[in-house]
């Protein structure tokens, strides 16, 4: 218990560094910030009554292993987003938006001219017609601008989503073993939500307000040129405030993304292990852990909103100064130059001036928001560039490969990470075609890694693996994996029909599928199911038992006529009768093909033609079950005796 407390206390200390010193002037100029240990207090409503509970719920927020970026968002993130929008739609949007704003200015000047004309009453129809023409043009251009802007945004989010999804589906297994689930969920939920709902609209509004602001400056410059003397330093102040705020908000948004991932991971893991949590009565512990992680995220969220309020107050005060100066300059100009600055022009200038602070405020806000949102584009772009497996190999492979599933490993070595010990080294193994072979050993002996080598899912550091006398490193991954079947411990079935789960590409007839179901001993089960082949499968196949899901996986392999079947701990969660049914079905369906069974239960391997015993990545025994069991002091015999003695 004391050791556990020390571990929990150490993890709690790690959590204290999640927040950075962000709202200081020095943070604006520095791209790398000094970390500061800022204690994150639990909310009073979720505080535990005892110190023991506080130690238990102190889980490390930084366990997400998400690399945090510092400094400004790189220009390549903007380039990525705008390139995905499409040049055609962007061009139409920019032209229509600029034309729309020009027409708005012309409309206002036309009204000014109308009010100055002493003979306007005699030409009402003329002025009204031109005004209506300008207004109609503005409305049409406004519709074109909004439609093309949203179309460009929709194209960008579609391309970014598909690019990330396609890349993640091709990532090696190491990525999924080292990347927390919450981080991946965060990309598809929060980051994509920002791109879907906020970026396109924010960019549209920014461009509109920028053009309005430029229009206001142009109008004021025409009416009262002296306004530019005061406008220049005011714009500099706006720029300084914007940069200061953006720098802080950018880092806070990155922290928000990092702090959100552990919440999603914890929720997903808790949902998966709900039965175990309830069995050990740990509901309160996991609830406290969730609230603790939520508190950390809430701290960041609170500071983001506080920063927004600070920006609003600062810009409101500065906007009041702009309005005062603009009105003062207009009034002085009309007094000094009454013939040049007419009352209608003063009214037009004041009208634009009153809106100028609003435009500037929104420009600053949208500039900051867009830079903050571009962090989502940066993260998604990074996911789209992760190293992937070589799916698109152009190596030529005979159409009938492999005719025989002769498997040969020559001095094969597997090491998942350079900081870890190799799983096995210099392993030599030959499995003739059609042999039924069992692989056993203690946990960590390399059983599953050996099976994964055949699918190129385990990184082969040295040596070679041959199937059908061909080095599998020269075989395109899609082709290689389509020639092998696997029955894992946890079989996943997808939502849809039974037929879809067996033949998604509609390559086989119903008769062929029924024949495979019969070989897999599922024909009776499916024929009694509502809808038969077209019966609905719930998410994860929860309307079928674990054994039935394993048999469906076997039926899929039979249907696709693969030459080798790999059963990786497939029977570990099954009862004895279901295990016997599965193994018998596999042997009869793959009678003349290679079957590799990886198992902890030694009883399920005794009917194999050959058994290999692994220990620390090395083959310590190899032979038929009778030979190995008769061997004095044999490893298999001792393992079997130990298993029987525990029953």
From TrEMBL:
GO terms for cellular component: membrane. It is a multi-pass membrane protein. Keywords: ATP-binding, Membrane, Nucleotide-binding, Transmembrane, Transmembrane helix, Transport. It is found in: Membrane. It comes from the Eukaryota. Residues 92-372 form the ABC transmembrane type-1 domain. GO terms for molecular function: ABC-type transporter activity; ATP binding; ATP hydrolysis activity. SMART domains: AAA. Coiled coil: none annotated. CDD domains: ABC_6TM_SUR1_D2_like (cd18602), ABCC_MRP_domain2 (cd03244). Residues 407-641 form the ABC transporter domain. This is ATP-binding cassette sub-family C member 8. It comes from Cacopsylla melanoneura.
């Amino acid at each position: 218990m004391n050791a556990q407390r020390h571990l929990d206390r150490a993890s709690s200390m790690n959590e204290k560094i999640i927040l950075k010193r962000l709202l200081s002037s020095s943070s604006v100029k520095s791209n790398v910030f000094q970390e500061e240990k800022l204690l994150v207090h639990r909310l009073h409503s979720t505080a535990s009554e005892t110190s023991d509970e506080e130690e238990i719920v102190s889980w490390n927020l930084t366990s997400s292993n998400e690399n945090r970026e510092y400094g400004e968002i790189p220009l390549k993130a903007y380039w990525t987003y705008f390139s995905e929008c499409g040049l055609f739609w962007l061009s139409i949007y920019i032209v229509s938006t600029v034309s729309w704003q020009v027409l708005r200015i012309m409309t206002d000047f036309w009204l000014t001219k109308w009010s100055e004309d002493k003979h306007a009453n005699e030409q009402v129809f003329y002025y009204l017609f031109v005004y209506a023409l300008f207004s109609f043009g503005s409305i049409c251009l406004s519709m074109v601008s909004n439609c093309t802007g949203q179309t460009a945004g929709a194209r960008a989010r579609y391309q970014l989503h598909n690019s990330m999804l396609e890349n993640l589906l091709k990532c090696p297994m190491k990525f999924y073993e080292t990347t927390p689930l919450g981080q991946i969920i965060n990309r598809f939920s929060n980051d994509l939500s920002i791109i879907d709902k906020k970026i396109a609209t924010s960019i549209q509004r920014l461009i509109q307000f920028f053009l309005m602001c430029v229009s206001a400056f142009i109008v004021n410059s025409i009416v009262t040129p002296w306004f530019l003397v005061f406008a220049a330093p005011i714009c500099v102040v706006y720029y300084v405030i914007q940069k200061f705020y953006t720098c802080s908000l950018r880092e806070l948004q990155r922290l928000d993304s990092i702090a959100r991932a552990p919440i999603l991971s914890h929720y997903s893991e808790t949902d998966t292990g709900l039965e175990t949590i309830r069995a050990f009565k740990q509901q309160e512990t996991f609830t406290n852990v969730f609230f603790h992680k939520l508190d950390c995220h809430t701290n960041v969220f609170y500071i983001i909103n506080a920063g927004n309020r600070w920006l609003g107050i600062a810009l409101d005060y500065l906007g009041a100064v702009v309005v005062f100066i603009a009105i003062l300059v207009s009034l002085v100009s009309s007094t000094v130059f009454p013939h040049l600055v007419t009352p209608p022009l003063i009214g037009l200038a004041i009208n634009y001036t009153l809106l100028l602070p609003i435009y500037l405020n929104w420009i600053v806000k949208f500039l900051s928001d867009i830079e903050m949102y571009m962090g989502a584009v940066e993260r998604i772009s990074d996911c789209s560039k992760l190293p992937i497996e070589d799916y698109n190999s152009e190596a030529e492979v005979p159409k009938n490969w492999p005719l025989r599933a002769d498997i040969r490993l020559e001095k094969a070595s597997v090491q998942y990470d350079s900081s870890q010990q190799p799983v096995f080294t210099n392993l030599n193994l030959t499995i003739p075609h059609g042999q039924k072979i069992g692989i056993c050993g203690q946990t960590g002996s390399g059983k599953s890694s050996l099976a994964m080598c055949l699918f190129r899912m385990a990184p082969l550091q040295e040596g070679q693996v041959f199937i059908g006398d061909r080095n599998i490193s020269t075989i395109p991954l899609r082709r290689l994996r389509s020639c092998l079947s696997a029955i894992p411990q946890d079989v996943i079935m997808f939502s849809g029909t039974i037929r879809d789960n067996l033949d998604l590409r509609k390559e086989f007839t119903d008769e062929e599928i029924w024949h495979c179901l019969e070989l897999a001993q599922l024909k009776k089960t499916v024929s009694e199911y509502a809808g038969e082949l077209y019966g609905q499968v719930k998410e994860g196949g929860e309307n079928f038992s674990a054994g039935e899901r394993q048999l469906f996986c076997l039926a899929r392999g039979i249907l696709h006529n693969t030459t080798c079947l790999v059963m990786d701990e497939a029977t570990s969660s099954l009862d004895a009768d279901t295990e016997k049914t599965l193994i018998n079905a596999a042997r009869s369906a793959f009678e003349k093909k290679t079957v590799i069974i990886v198992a902890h239960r030694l009883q399920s391997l005794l009917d194999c033609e050959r058994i290999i015993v692994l220990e620390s990545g090395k083959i310590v025994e190899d032979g038929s079950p009778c030979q190995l069991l008769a061997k004095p002091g044999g490893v298999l015999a001792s393992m079997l005796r130990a298993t029987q003695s525990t029953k």
